[in-house]
Design brief:
The protein has about 375 residues and is of the alpha/beta class. It folds into two domains: about 130 residues, Aspartate Aminotransferase, domain 1, CATH 3.90.1150.10; about 240 residues, 3-Layer(aba) Sandwich (Aspartate Aminotransferase, domain 2). Helix content is about 40%, strand content about 15%. The chain has a seven-stranded mixed β-sheet with strand order 2-8-7-6-5-3-4, sandwiched between helices. Strands 9-10-12 form a three-stranded antiparallel β-sheet. The longest helix has 22 residues. The chain is globular, with a radius of gyration of 21 Å. Bound molecules: pyridoxal-5'-phosphate (PLP).
Length: about 375
């Protein structure tokens, strides 16, 4: 049975060019970047070349990019070090964050006594930035704001430019989980005064096990992992040269094709919305998911007008791979914090959220197959 992959917000297939670039490194550039002889220095040059690529994309300096193993590690490091090393006593966040942010914050509350304040979203998943300003005004405690750029379940985009400006005005630190937007949207941190951000290569056709943290130069974070002077002593451990080259190649391809890929996925998304609305009466789309420009073009969050907790399993049996509106970390079918915080009790009782996410490999026929399968399952 042919498999139709519609879960690109969880992870993406590797591009052929990325595989080729990585195989070449594995075969030829096996040196340790810390070795002073030529083979090591060649590997080091690859690491630095790709660091520069990332820095250019974000309009920052290479010294502000620290390669890590993934988005989860980057977010953990940033949040925990803000508390342990930068004197943060209060964190403002929202229930929409990925588990790795949410649990890092909770751990800082439990272990370090940090005050944790939640900005509650409305039913569209919007955050009230006036409320954020009130919160920033209301305390003298050193504060970290951690709010994501785009939600990985609903797809809503958040105005990190405005949030960053507010944080700057009230002298709070600002971390944004940019895992779902890096390489999908242009980002310019020379204009957006975000202090910290995170990335994961496997969200844009790069390999798993590599990501980076953006750490603004003046902030003074300390490492989560110690025992070596790699990554300017901010992340010990021999560099994942193969992964870094894969990340760089995936970023190259994403940037070269950004407009074409975005257009392709926007068209697919519009087609999916049209087909689903026509064939499944009563269907809704969560948050701003169906609104162009207000949400990720890679993701459509459905609210099916019937209850079926086994739907992703049934779709899997038909060869269609999607996520059941819950976070990409566990594959669990239970409702997520994000869905619980934006859906009404009635919607939670009577409906089924489903996340469909696209890549430039996705075709119209894949959408047709999804719609047909959903109609069959509903019947
Ligand atoms: N943050 C967001 C918004 C995500 O979607 C993910 C995906 O799983 C992560 C963080 C974690 O990234 P990683 O899989 O690289 O640990």
């Amino acid at each position: 049975m042919k498999r139709i992959y519609l879960d690109n917000a969880a992870t993406t297939p590797l591009s052929e060019e990325v595989i080729d670039a990585m195989v070449s490194v594995m075969k030829n550039q096996y040196g340790n970047p810390s070795s002073t002889y030529s083979l090591g220095q060649e590997a080091k040059a690859l690491v630095e070349e790709n660091r520069r690529k990332v820095a250019d994309y974000l309009h920052v300096t290479p010294a502000e990019i620290i390669f890590t193993s993934c988005g989860t590690e980057s977010n953990n490091m940033i949040i925990k070090s803000c508390v342990d090393n930068l004197g943060v006593e209060r964190i403002i966040t929202s229930p929409l964050e990925h588990k790795c942010v949410a649990e890092s914050c909770l751990e800082m509350k439990k272990k370090r006594g940090v005050e944790l304040v939640y900005l509650r979203p409305d039913q569209k998943g919007d955050l009230d930035l006036n409320k954020l300003e009130e919160l920033l005004q209301s305390s003298d405690k050193k504060t970290l704001v951690t709010l994501m750029h785009a939600n990985n379940e609903v797809g809503n985009l958040y105005d990190i430019e405005k949030i960053a400006q507010l944080c700057k005005e009230y002298h709070a630190l600002f971390h944004s989980d940019t895992v779902q937007t890096v390489a999908h949207l242009p980002l310019d941190f020379s204009k957006t005064p975000v202090d910290f951000a995170s990335c994961s290569a496997h969200k844009f056709h790069g390999p798993k096990g590599i990501g980076f943290a953006f750490i603004r130069k003046s902030t003074g974070l300390k490492p989560l992992i110690v025992g070596g002077s790699q990554e300017r002593s901010l992340r010990a451990g021999t560099e994942n040269v193969t992964g870094i080259v894969g990340l760089g190649k995936a970023l190259d391809l994403a940037l070269e094709n950004m407009d074409a890929y975005a257009q392709h996925m926007e068209d697919l998304k519009a087609y999916a919305i049209e087909q689903l609305t026509e064939k499944i009466p009563g269907i809704k789309f969560n948050g701003h998911s169906a609104e162009k420009g207000e949400s990720l073009y890679t993701l459509l969050s459905l609210l099916l007008p019937f209850k079926n907790p086994l739907i992703s399993l049934q779709l899997d049996m038909k060869g269609i791979l999607v996520s059941q509106g819950s976070a990409c970390s566990s594959g669990a079918a239970k409702p997520s914090m994000v869905m619980m915080s934006i859906l009404s009790d009635d919607e939670m009782e009577q409906c089924t959220p489903l996340r469909v996410s696209f890549s430039h490999f996705t075709q119209k026929e894949d959408i047709d197959a999804l719609v047909t399968a959903l109609v069959e399952i509903k019947a």
